[in-house]
Amino acid sequence: MSKMSYEQIGVAMTCRSYEEYVRMFDLEPSDLAQGEVLDVAAGGSSFTAEVNARGYSAYAVDPRYDAGIEKWISEAVQEIVTSTAKLAKLQENFDWSYYGSIEQHRAGRETSIELFKSNVLDSRQSNRYLAGKLPELPFGDDRFSLILCSHFMFLYANQFGPEFHIHAIMDLMRICKPGGQIRIYPLISLDWKPYPELDQLLDFIKANGGKTELCPSRLPFIPGSSHFLKILL
């Protein structure tokens, strides 16, 4: 790999906060108030817990939830250590204006996984976390008003090709209710290059009844990653 890339084998475990989601997806309270919200490939992020604590209705789906939640939490904690070490080697390439420092970045991840842990182990909330993976998610048609996918689609373009992304988009559109929306961030891969098939994918979405917008993200960090994709149904 070149120096300008984040080295990753397999799909990393994500631990991000509500505030990070608000910034990366430019979310407003009105976006969350339209109906059920789904966080796809949610990992150990605390977004779902924090959204529900604010009185909205959110769910999280991730393939690792099927492996035993305690094991998953342990792996997520270790991933924070691993990812921080990788970032330290590349930190001069990132925009730290939001996080402040690599130490604060790590502290935020640790806070997020703790919030996630307390929520998912709460029997009153555990049904909010479901095992499932793209390109076929375990939900009925036309269910969610807002679907978010953070740091999975497009980011792993070298592991998941164009056909996967088309099928994944089809399924996200299937489970999104009419009048709802899908937001995906970032639009670049781990080698910090724009997803090469994005234009063809946008044409596919339009041909299948969706409207697309490339919208500015408010979470500066990854080199060259300034926008998210919004799909309106």
Could you walk me through the main structural features you see in this protein, from its secondary elements to its overall organization?
This protein is an alpha/beta fold. It has one domain: Vaccinia Virus protein VP39 (Rossmann fold), CATH 3.40.50.150. Helices cover 36% and strands 17% of the residues. The protein is built from 7 helices and 7 strands; from the N terminus they run ααβαβααββαβαββ. The chain has a 7-stranded mixed beta sheet. Helix 3 crosses helix 5.
Explain the layout of strands and helices.
Elements: H1 18-24, H2 29-32, E1 37-40, H3 47-53, E2 58-61, H4 69-90, H5 102-120, E3 129-130, E4 144-150, H6 162-175, E5 176-185, H7 198-207, E6 211-216, E7 227-232
Parallel strand pairs: 1-2, 1-4, 2-3, 4-5
Antiparallel strand pairs: 5-7, 6-7
Helix pairs in contact: 3-5, 4-5
